């Protein structure tokens, strides 16, 4: 297990040939490929509801439900993503190749969890809750961008017929 990793420990490319093979053969790659667009769809609906609430003050319950559902999909993708990372890189989190993505994922998870705690604990007003959800969603967009960038790197490496290490060099 990689107990102490840092971004500088990351190899030059995204995947070694062995890691690429493990990625391609892992059932968790498919699970991630299914969950990611589902989570994005839930996110998009929830953003629409949050905007609607900010503009009209209506549909509050639906808005809260949408944020809870978004958070549940986030938990699902985080748990299965950690299993995927273990399958491919040998560490549940913070493998050098995905170190910064995992760091930001922890922020995303923390903000979403804080929303649930505040909602169920009655700790914040509705406006404060939805401001917190908005902050969580901004962090999610940043994190999603990180992962999309990594997937693009991997695709470019695969399409060129070179290993991703050669592409990055």
Automatic annotation (TrEMBL):
Gene Ontology biological-process annotations: bacteriochlorophyll biosynthetic process; photosynthesis, dark reaction
Pfam families per UniProt: BCHF
Biological classification of the source: Bacteria, Pseudomonadati, Pseudomonadota, Alphaproteobacteria, Hyphomicrobiales
Record keyword Transmembrane present: yes
One example GO MF annotation: hydro-lyase activity
Membrane spanning residue stretches: 30-55, 61-84, 104-123, 129-149
Protein name (database record): 2-vinyl bacteriochlorophyllide hydratase
Keywords of the record: Membrane, Transmembrane, Transmembrane helix
Keyword Transcription regulation: no
Domain of life: Bacteria
